[in-house]
Write a structure and sequence with these properties.
Keywords: ATP-binding, Cell membrane, Kinase, Membrane, Nucleotide-binding, Serine/threonine-protein kinase, Transferase, Transmembrane, Transmembrane helix. The protein has one helix spanning 44-57, and strands at 11-14, 18-24, 30-36. It is α+β, with helices and mostly antiparallel strands.
Length: 74
């Protein structure tokens, strides 16, 4: 699994929506994976979707490119 089952050793940071983990894809590419917090706030999923849309449009040498996202129940 890319994040080693969301191991604490792979935490890169924490934000308002959850934790960001370092991961590695099967092809060896390094990625950052944001995992939403378990507890949801009203409107939180919509805010997250807005954040994803903004990140997908951002182009900057200090930002990672968005490779995709998914939203599934835990």
């Amino acid at each position: 699994v890319a994040t080693d089952s969301f191991s604490n050793k792979n935490i890169l940071g924490r934000g308002g929506f959850g934790k960001v983990y370092k991961g590695r894809l099967a092809d060896g590419s390094l990625v950052a994976v944001k995992r939403l917090k378990e507890e949801r706030t009203p409107g939180g999923e919509l805010q997250f979707q807005t954040e994803v849309e903004m990140i997908s449009m951002a182009v900057h040498r200090n930002l990672l490119r968005l490779r995709g996202f998914c939203m599934t129940p835990t």
